[in-house]
Amino acid sequence: MTSTQRPGSTGAAAGRRTVRASIAAVAAFSAAFGLAACNRSSSSDTGGSSGGQKTVGVALITKDSTNPFFVAMQKGAKADASKNNVKLTVASGKQEGDDQGQITAIEDSIARGDKGILITPMSTGVNAAIKKARDAGLYVIALDTPPDPANTVDITFATDNREAGKLDGQWAAATMAGKPAVIALLDLFNDKIVSVDYNRDQGFLEGMGIPVNDPKKNGDEAKTGKYTGGKGGDYTIVCNEAGNGAEDGGRTAMEKCLAKNPNINLVYTINEPTAVGANAALKAAGKTATIVSVDGGCAGVASVKSGVIGATAQQYPLKMATLGMEAIAQVARGGAKPTPDPGLDFKNTGVALVTDKPVDGVKSIDSAKGAELCWGN
């Protein structure tokens, strides 16, 4: 959430893709890996117990082990490991921002002699450890959060986070219907630069039709002006506050924003736990606002259905983990290396906007469909 990530070109390419095309591409990619897995059963590799395949050691290192998004990744990878004859080790930081926890897990993977690592990189603080792993011969795939720069890893399997933010912004602009937008931006960090953070935030602004300055920096856009999405109108950005991707952080961040301006009517949130926290703060203050978010977990989709979240961009962590693990196993057994999708510098695992209040010109699915595709509890 990347050479150096090209947010501008990524956003333009994403804008041309439909949700249907994204999902079709993911299905085709899954089929291709399934075929490759079948072909591997005739491999002459030895040392494993599955069809003559050698056992491949893989480490899955997530940011934490409590966020439903990362729990879904872990469960999906564990369920898929045996059929690919992968010896999977799961590790994580203690919480968002724990660079050292991930660094230790990377060093442990090298020491075990793993063939590859799947990682949702915490920040640029883990780049040196990733380089050490690659220098030791491990194939490293980033999941969900493309590192900066992108070539820190061999490849990234991720949601197009710029597109996810843009879908939220396009929907929000249309929903505002020309009314003044008084906006709170609840980001991930204020002390770390993470691509998933700025891509979602800046994508949201682009979707709203609000000019951004540095596309890889949050908070440097003009605080007042005109948004051109939907029918267009005036906007005021009240705050950029960090919620650390957590419900309690979202509530605290929203409280700070309301203290600056109690008339906030539009809230962008980095993820759904942050959105739930923001809603709690609004409710406690006797306020209401339109909230948009990213993730598409089952709890988040339920929040769309109940009206807490107006729209959320759904991503597919299980696909990231299982396809990434299969790719490492394939490479370790002498197969082809995965390549980025055309026009991108990562493998796109798809995104769909979930809302029960569709607007013209923005493709979406409803919460019933979102519930069929969601992950977590």
TrEMBL record:
This is Fructose transport system substrate-binding protein. It comes from Pedococcus cremeus. Belongs to the bacterial solute-binding protein 2 family. Residues 58-334 form the Periplasmic binding protein domain. It is found in: Cell envelope. Residues 1-36 form the signal peptide. Coiled coil: none annotated. Keywords: Signal. The keyword Signal applies. GO terms for molecular function: carbohydrate binding. One of its GO terms (cellular component) is cell envelope.
